[in-house]
Amino acid sequence: MESKQSVMILAEIRSQQVHDLTWEMLTWGRKLADKLGVQVDCVVLGIEQGNFQELIHWGADRVLAVTNGRPDGILATPAARLLVEIIRAEQPGIVIAPATTFGRTIMPITAARLATGLTADCTELDIDPKDNLLLQTRPAIGGNIMATIKTARTKPQMATVRPRSIKPDGFDHTRQGEVMIKQYDTANAWPETLLSFRHNEENDINLENADLVVAGGKGMKSKENYQQLEELAVLLGAGLGATRDAVEAGWAPFARQVGLTGKTVSPKVYIAAGVSGKIQHLAGILTSEYIIAINEDADSQIFKVADLGIIGDAPTVVTQLIQALKDLKTDGKEH
Amino acid sequence: MKIIVLIKQVPGTANTRMNPETGVMIRDAGETILNPLDEHAVTEAVMIKKKHPGTEVIALTMGPPSAQKVLREACARGADRGILLSDKAFGGSDTLVTSRVLAAAIRKIGDTNLILAGEKATDGETGQTGPMTAALLDMPVLTFVHRLEVNDMHIIARRMVEDGIEEIKADLPALVTVVKDINNPPLPTIKGYILAKKQKFPVWGPVDLALEDGTMGLKGSPTRVVKIFTPKLSRQTTFYTADTKEQLPGAAEAIIKVLKSRSLTEKGDRYGV
Ligand SMILES: Cc1cc2nc3c(=O)[nH]c(=O)nc-3n(C[C@H](O)[C@H](O)[C@H](O)COP(=O)(O)OP(=O)(O)OC[C@H]3O[C@@H](n4cnc5c(N)ncnc54)[C@H](O)[C@@H]3O)c2cc1C
Ligand SMILES: Nc1ncnc2c1ncn2[C@@H]1O[C@H](COP(=O)(O)O)[C@@H](O)[C@H]1O
């Protein structure tokens, strides 16, 4: 019986569409389901149309599009009602959702209604081979330590997972699956209405999706120096990040903060200039493929996670780098 | 109108420890403060009160006896009274059980129009208590709110979500979790402190809340910490020293080499959106 309980993934919905973050969730889901020998169900809340076949290619055995026939999208309380219904009907063993404003609202409502446990903001999920329970690992106490949590006595085991904690993987366009559209009537009382939605103007999302991120900390010494990083970022088409201390100094807006209380990035290369590498900052960068650190202190913690360490004055090295890149461009071709 | 503000006492600095056996945070170590976001929640409640005369603001916290301190601070900031939910049986509660206890207390208080909470606390950082409490009370919840307008029958709240701002109307009673941008809490006044000093806070336990054995504390919590560890940081680092002027071009070159090998030196559409 136990082995039949599926791993259920909640698709991220933004502006009435399935968001790419869902691929990461499916990658986690596949990983767990394969260990358990069960199937992956991907639940899409509130919309009936979308490229559901793509979700199957990314690892879903079934896509369950669940709606209540309401046109105005997916507000937390009614969406959580839908999720409760589908969990009661499908009896999954595990339910995971992205730790976004969407997942972080719907999942706790759902868990409370089902009287089961929920672990927030996991960065690592695994299956305990001894009892087939979900191991939910998350940073605790300001990120200084990691805690692994289990939900042993109640079902389903629920967790929200930090975006960018895994690389989307396992796309297979030959994978077959089933798409089911389900309607539940949960609309007897309707406490919430969406009045309007205003899109962000500045596109800070770039930071989270960038292949290259340039970030500065207090070691950049001044706002003017930090702005050099802006020039570097423009030159390279990179995302621009900052440490909390740089944000608090007023050098950068909060939207650029990288780390535990800011954004998680996962670029091919992360350049950290004048960053000490405190654990809370590292929480946001550890899935970077390659880390370059520029710091004058050879013993700085940032070098423990760096692949390339430049020991020197960060503003000066950044100036030099900008000049070298400009020279490269005026030279015409890259060699 | 009756507004309840959920507040939490959190460790003030990095002096938190964990009991390695139970995985429960040891909360009596060192200095504690009112969770910063809860300061914003209390401030918002007091602002609503100013606009709606006759409103009563009640601060509610579950915690050890020492959590009286944060109730006092909430009163110094303008809350009318405070209630402490405290008992040995509540120790080690996870967010579900905390919410269960808070919901029971809110039911006992009765006739609440609005509940305010912080979006998350700095110690557990789960952000789950607000939505869970609302779910147990079967009321709508609006999270990540940075602007709130309160009328007699409903609220209009603006939520900060990843790609924009949602404006939502919800019937009362409702629960709202607030983010930092909602207001700027002023410092509590001396008068506030003097008034708060005289306050006595009732303490409610499992009997007052009609909570049964086994539904509270560590025993009643579905989640359990099974392991605590310090993340291991180690990559093979290639070092390059750029102390002198002569060494600088080489440093830049080393960085550019890495970027080139990954085709990252030319600006292009690499955002994957
Ligand atoms: C609950 C909690 C959450 C937090 N969340 C975050 C978060 O999300 N993101 C975040 O970044 N931080 C966060 N922090 C703060 C974090 O602990 C650090 O304080 C912060 O990351 C340090 O920023 P920094 O590296 O810019 O500054 P510092 O720690 O001051 O480091 C500056 C570094 O620059 C180097 N330096 C100085 N001068 C030069 C120079 N001329 N050239 C080169 N190097 C130089 C120094 O050697 C040092 O290593 C959080 C803290 C807590 C308690
Ligand atoms: N023990 C508690 N007593 C009262 N309110 C709490 C308690 N724990 C959490 N809260 C409320 O829930 C919010 C989020 O906390 P958390 O879920 O721990 O991140 C806090 O900002 C408080 O408003």
Molecular structure report:
The complex is a heterodimer of chains A (335) and B (273). Chain A is of the alpha/beta class. Chain A has two domains: 7-183, HUPs (Rossmann fold); 207-334, TPP-binding domain (Rossmann fold, 3-Layer(aba) Sandwich). Chain A has helices at residues 21-36, 52-57, 76-90, 103-114, 205-209, 223-236, 244-248, 279-282, 314-330, and strands at residues 7-10, 13-14, 17-18, 40-45, 62-67, 94-98, 118-122, 124-127, 134-140, 145-151, 157-161, 178-183, 192-199, 212-216, 239-242, 269-273, 290-295, 308-312. In chain A, a hairpin with a 6-residue loop joins strand 8 and strand 9 (134-140). The radius of gyration of chain A is 22 Å and the shape is elongated. Chain B is an alpha/beta fold and 273 residues long. Chain B has two domains: 2-220, HUPs (Rossmann fold, 3-Layer(aba) Sandwich), CATH 3.40.50; 235-273, no CATH class. Chain B has seven helices and 15 strands. In chain B, helix 2 (68-76) packs across helix 5 and helix 3 (95-109) packs across helix 4. The chains are: A alpha/beta (335), B alpha/beta (273). The structure holds flavin-adenine dinucleotide (FAD) and adenosine monophosphate. Adenosine monophosphate is lined by residues 6-8, 35, 37-38, 41, 60-63, 95, 98, 102, 117-118, 120-121, 124-130 of chain B.
Q: What is CATH's topology name of the largest domain in chain B?
A: Rossmann fold
Number of strands of chain A: 18
Question: Strand content of the residues of chain A, in percent?
Answer: 25-35%
CATH class of the largest domain in chain A: Alpha Beta
CATH architecture name of the largest domain in chain A:
3-Layer(aba) Sandwich
Q: Work out the helicity level of chain A.
A: 25-40%
Proportion in β-strands of chain B = 25-35%
Low-confidence stretches of chain A: none
- The backbone outline of chain A, from C-alpha atoms, is elongated
CATH homologous group name of the largest domain in chain A: HUPs
The CATH top-level class label of the largest domain in chain B: Alpha Beta
Total helical segments of chain A: 9
Mean pLDDT level of chain A: 90
Helix content of chain B: 25-40%
Structural class of chain A: alpha/beta
